[in-house]
Design goal:
Elements lengths: L1 E7 L3 E8 L4 E9 L3 E10 L5 E7 L2 H12 L13 E8 L10 E2 L2 H9 L8 H14 L4 E6 L9 H4 L5 H7 L8 H15 L7 E7 L3 E7 L2 E5 L22 H9 L3 H10 L2 H6 L5 H9 L3 H25 L4 E5 H6 L1 H9 L10 H5 L6 E2 L8 E4 L4 H17 L3
Helix pairs in contact: 1-3, 10-11, 11-13
Pfam family, one: Acetate_kinase
Family: Belongs to the acetokinase family.
Protein name: Acetate kinase
Amino acid sequence: MKILVINAGSSSLKFQLYNMENEEVLAKGKVERIGMDSAIVCYEPAGSSEVREVSEILEHTTAIRKVLEMIAHPKYGVLESIQEIQAVGHRVVHGGESFTGSVIVDENVKREIRNLFDLAPLHNPAHMLGINAVEANMPEVTQVVAFDTAFHQTMPRGSYLYPIPMVLYKKHKIRRYGFHGISHAYVSERAAELVQKPLEQLKLISCHIGNGASCTAVLNGKSFDTSMGLTPLEGLMMGTRSGDIDPAIVPFAMGKEDLTLSEVNSMLNKHSGLMAISGISSDMREILDAMKEGDRNASLAFDMYEYRLRKYIGSYTAAMNGVDVLVFTAGVGENSAALRQAVCRNLTFLGLELDEKANEQRSNEERIISTEQSRVQVLVIPTNEELVIARDTHQLLLNSRNVV
């Protein structure tokens, strides 16, 4: 079975095509600058070099059409016909309280995704563009949506409710939802396999550390608490997001600087975090390079970033009354040995012992980076959200059609 996985943004679209017989990626790529006459299409068939084209792509329907043309192209395509694609899976950031798992798209599902536009104004509308674009190009194909929030629907009320008037939750569903759930679910399952213990018997902390970052306490296989909240702004210090701050800063800054709601929202989401403190970049690689040159602001940004991550690890250890496994994933988590070392250096009170050689190893492979004596096993696991979406899509299609 061939399944196409799509992650649609407002002006971009990423895709991967899977053969589910062996979970092989047949092709992958992205379309950038949708809405412009100089859109860039990158297409990479398995085992071959990347194909790049610049063309006019003014909306997502054309972008999907271009992707399908490349997949079935006579010269560099990987399928004889797009009719071989039996389903399309989409990543959707916000599923609210309505969805606890992946679902097949129908009118009710689309209506509920639209109802959640207010909770994810930058993401859900873009995801709907992707769904509608596939429908326009492949009206008969089954579509499935996987939600970043679904994994966190197991959180107890004490974890997801805010200590504010309950009327705000009852009327407007203001609560903690959490994000990166597809990633946290994947690495949790892989971690259990690597340490050869049932996930249902583990106390695990998953750190998805990229430009956006979140930390999740996984207790007995279920999300118990997570750092992102109503929106992806809460929690850890990130590339351009502030993470946790005193909420009174918002009205105070608005009054002092005469800021509008839009301006203060932009400040916290796009002009804070590593970028704000370092003054040079939101990219951890550039921060580390600047530190080597003696840049004090870069060092301060790194220290604050690491400290806030370590505080969350400590709080989740307390919340679960212990921790068995600590996982690092996503761009920074997978690639920054310096961050992992700094975090683990001050967690030795847990009986955690880092294997420095394994930590420094440059590898894209999943691995254990703690010593055999360490009471907490520390792992690096490259995340694979697209594979999770493909698997969920495959399973739902099998269940609905009894496809062999």
